[in-house]
Amino acid sequence: MSQPSSAVTAAPTESPATPIPPTNESSITSRVPVPSTTPQSSTKKPQSGPNTIGLYAVQCGECFKWRLIANEEEYEKIRCKLLEEPFICSKKPNVSCADPADIEKDASRTWVIDKPNIPRTPSGFKRKLVLRRDFSKLDAHYVSPTGKKLRSSLEVGKYLEESPDIKGVSVTDFSFTVPKVVEETIPKDALERKASAKGEKKGKDSKAGES
């Protein structure tokens, strides 16, 4: 069985001719319909919506089929040890490599490539991944047991220092590494808005240089 690489790569939707390391990915339900009938105007500063992860999937290290994972907790258990313990279909109850894939990686939803071996979220905390409205990237933050948003390792460290009742948790248990958005699964109208915004910015920069 091939071993997963430390850099997660996009997975094929068909059986590859040569082995490709298994990956784990999250699927984000598109905030903009595909195709969209009501294009939204672009904004200068990307804004974020609520937590936008809709589905979790992991690729089998033997047959390369995608298996849906029931919830975020189970997904994190797999992800945190993916390099040491590659995922295979038989780890799901009553499932084998002979069964059809649970899901195909296509443009019916927006996919993001996750990193392996990100630590599991400490008990009492919630890890949130939010897709920017222009689909350019995700932003990560944690929500503490008291409801406080923590947006960086510095904020986490300060919070832990001010919360002596939280035991057995350190800054290294938190990761702000975000998955990479798979561009070919971004809704077409979102890409068009992104290209238009870049064109407008380039035009303004050009005029500013001439003045």
Tell me what the structure shows.
This protein is of the alpha+beta class and 211 residues long. The chain has three helices and eight strands, in the order βββαββββαβα. The strands form two sheets. It has a five-stranded antiparallel beta sheet, covered by helices on one side. It has a three-stranded antiparallel beta sheet with strand order 5-6-7. β2 and β3 form a beta hairpin. The longest helix has 23 residues. It is flat, with a radius of gyration of 20 Å. The termini are far apart. The N terminus is likely disordered.
Query: pLDDT under 50 segments (min length 5)?
Result: 1-21, 29-49
Rounded average pLDDT? 79
Rg from C-alpha positions?
20 Å
User: How many helix segments?
Assistant: 3
SSE ordering = EEEHEEEEHEH
Instruction: Tell me what portion of residues adopts beta-strand conformation.
Output: 15-25%
The outline comes out as flat
Helix-strand category: alpha+beta
- State the distance separating the first and last CA atoms: 62 Å
Question: What's the count of strands?
Answer: 8
* Helix share bin: 10-25%
Give the strand order, joined by hyphens, for the main sheet. Answer: 3-2-1-4-8
Sheet with the most strands, sense and barrel status: 5 strands, antiparallel
